[in-house]
Amino acid sequence: MCGIVGLFIKDPKLEPELGGLLSTMLDVMCDRGPDSAGFAVYGAGAPGAVKLTLRGPAGTDFAALGGRLGLPVAPRDTHAVLTIPAGREIEVRARIATLAPEVAVISSGSRMELYKEVGLPADVAKRFNLAGMAGTHAIGHTRMATESAVTTDGAHPFSTGPDQCLVHNGSLSNHAGVRRELEREGLRLATQNDSEVAAAYLTHRMKGGDSLGSALEHSLEDLDGFYTFVVGTESGFGVLRDPIACKPAVMAETDQYVAFGSEYRALVDLPEIGKARVWEPEPAKVYFWERAA
Amino acid sequence: MSAGTNLAMKSLGSDDARIVDLSTSTLRELNGALHALNATNETLWRVLNPRGLHAIAAGVDAPVTIEIDGHVGYYCGGMNKQARIVVNGNAGVGVAENMMSGSVHVTGDASQAAGATGNGGLLVIDGNASARCGISMKGIDIVVKGSVGHMSAFMAQAGSLVVLGDAGEALGDSLYEAKLFVRGSVASLGADCIEKEMRDEHRALLAAKLEAAGLAGEVDLGEFRRYGSARTLYHFHVDNVSSY
């Protein structure tokens, strides 16, 4: 099964409530995916700075690691966000690999932070205090594993490019072939998960100059299988369902937000939901929203 | 339908309605109460705050009216017998699936597999229905005022599907004897589904279904086209073996 939730805020007044709203949506989707959960939040960024989300084993002393790197770090349970000057990412990644080889860098971007863990989604959201996070948009996932093991690495979202993330409900049938092609192009994938291949595919397309919308259009040609994707970029939020619409999806839009849920149940606590336009995204149709630059 | 149902259809005031608020009552309490209905005077039920819950008013077998104020989740009104169920909102997957009799009216859109496997009764959807509307229907009548998605009426055995808008790809694939009427465009016909001549008997049938859905005189019968089974697939023929 799996559950997906996503929220793209249009009215800045609602931005402080982003994490709280997404947390409630994620709770409701626990029964679609009790194995593990994750979410990506597009929060505040500083000019010239990059945020690296780190993940380590339980008990990792992120404050000490930040101290040794001489960089500000904000730990949250098994994860931490390290803020670094843009341009030093390669060097900092290399130093982390040396100083703390057990710590993985799971995302990088000017605004995106990414958290995921094995466990009941409601508990995962609490561990990271999702409810306290603010931002412009966020995507979450509750996983019932089908294509790979229940591990933190296999949890969604997957991030394969700066400020880019993807969550997936479904399973891809040609991911091994697409993976080989992407690896030939120089992309490095961290897991054996089919959804990470979809994320890397979109990253590859966008690196080649595609917009998010155009990258999603191309995935209709190149990715085979069942999927509902919800994708985030620094400024955008996109949705795509496979041509036979195997996996459920409901969307709601008001003047204040655009929301996605695997089921309408996930959306019922959003503000003014009774007045929202609620619809089912059509199969093989790309939907995306961009924030004004 | 009983006189009680007709009375309820006229009187939608809250005075004589039994109100169940799903923000304070559980779904099981609601459905348990509906399943316990026998020769009842409680002929009008109003369900508040459905919050997209699944299986609301599923398995009802009593001549009552159930009005649900808001969007519902999966299988709303499933297996319905006798009851008249109105959803004032959108319905999730499988609304009125396997309905036996009575009616389900969705004032918004319906998700996939609306009316799936229905044996009888009337399903009216004011908005659009998505993919696989009427899949494997066995006698239900479905009227969709908007459009239907792909693979609608797949393996439909009996009953009728009337679509005032358009139909998606592969309409009526592997169709048996259900009768399909579409006013708008059809993206493509499924295997063994063909357009058929609209004769007087079909116009009469279509008019009756439209009337049942409250659309008498509102749409021009001449704008509809009829689709049915070419009957080449459902008798075994060795030349068709690759199509089975």
Describe this structure in words.
The complex is a heterodimer of chains A (293) and B (244). With 293 residues, chain A is an alpha+beta fold. Chain A folds into 2 domains: 3-44 and 118-290, Aminohydrolase, N-terminal nucleophile (Ntn) domain (Glutamine Phosphoribosylpyrophosphate, subunit 1, domain 1), CATH 3.60.20.10; 46-110, Alpha-Beta Plaits, CATH 3.30.70. Chain A contains 7 helices and 16 strands. Chain A has helices spanning 18-28, 62-69, 89-99, 121-127, 175-184, 194-207, 212-222; strands at residues 3-9, 36-42, 49-55, 73-76, 79-85, 104-109, 112-118, 137-143, 158-161, 164-172, 225-232, 236-241, 250-253, 257-261, 277-279, 287-290. In chain A, the strands form 3 sheets. Chain A has a 7-stranded antiparallel β-sheet with strand order 7-2-8-1-14-13-15, with helices on one face. In chain A, strands 9-10-11-12-16 form a 5-stranded antiparallel β-sheet. Chain A has a 4-stranded antiparallel β-sheet with strand order 4-5-3-6, covered by helices on one side. In chain A, strand 13 and strand 14 (257-261) form a beta hairpin. In chain A, helix 1 runs antiparallel to helix 4. Chain A is globular, with a radius of gyration of 18 Å. The mean pLDDT of chain A is 95. With 244 residues, chain B is an alpha/beta fold. Chain B has one domain: 3 Solenoid (Pectate Lyase C-like), CATH 2.160.20. Chain B contains 3 helices and 11 strands. Chain B has helices at 3-10, 27-35, 200-212; strands at 18-21, 44-48, 65-69, 84-87, 103-106, 122-125, 138-144, 158-163, 179-182, 193-196, 225-229. Chain B has an 11-stranded mixed β-sheet, with helices on one face. Chain B is elongated. The N and C termini of chain B lie far apart (40 Å). The chains are: A alpha+beta (293), B alpha/beta (244). The interface between A and B is medium-sized, with 16 and 21 residues. Chain A: It comes from Ancylobacter crimeensis. Chain A: This is Glutamine amidotransferase family protein. Chain A: Residues 2-292 form the Glutamine amidotransferase type-2 domain. Chain A: InterPro entries: GATase_2_dom, Ntn_hydrolases_N. Chain A: Pfam families: GATase_6.
